[in-house]
């Protein structure tokens, strides 16, 4: 399906225009894009088309990928790199899309050296130097959970090694400030999970610093006002990292509440 889309968009040597009606239809299913200023949305569209030209998509489990689905995935995948460009995604080409949750076989060795095999149901997975695997989820109002942004935040994190919650930083940022602020936020979040206090983001963020960064990135783009209220210093770091301030464009009366 991606080959068909590429011929349609790029078959004449330059990108053919996606109709404004199609852009609006696809973006209408991604309401959090409205938090971006107009110039950022135009740049995101252009970057999404370039992303589709460089990557190869595969539908798994019988999923047939439509042009709207591909555009929706590309728009979300490009949010974390909107101000740094596609170079962050240069060492891999494949995107695999499943129709909902999928299972990955795992092996784990216990303290006695016994290897246990099990099936791990997941929504997505990003492999260093390899493909990004995501599930296609029904489009719903922004709830702070976004598997595409999550997995591509992992890809950004992997630009300087394994995913560890410490992505490449901008020239106006310092490693010391990032480490101090995110360590404090992560410790606070894990304490909230342990004590049963209300959580501003999904509980999965407590799994590791890498997952904390990815879940924080989901919330940054989808529920920025809630994230800024819960972790203002971490939000400020993400604002510098991504070069965007979604909370500035969000409507507080329409952004809901976290659990």
UniProtKB/TrEMBL annotation:
CDD domains: Peptidase_M90_mtfA
UniProt signal peptide: none
GO cellular component, one term: cytosol
Pfam families: Peptidase_M90
Gene Ontology terms for molecular function: aminopeptidase activity; metallopeptidase activity
Top-level taxon of origin: Bacteria
Gene3D superfamilies on file: Collagenase (Catalytic Domain) (3.40.390.10), Glucose-regulated metallo-peptidase M90, N-terminal domain (1.10.472.150)
Protein name: Zinc-dependent peptidase
Species name: Denitromonas iodatirespirans
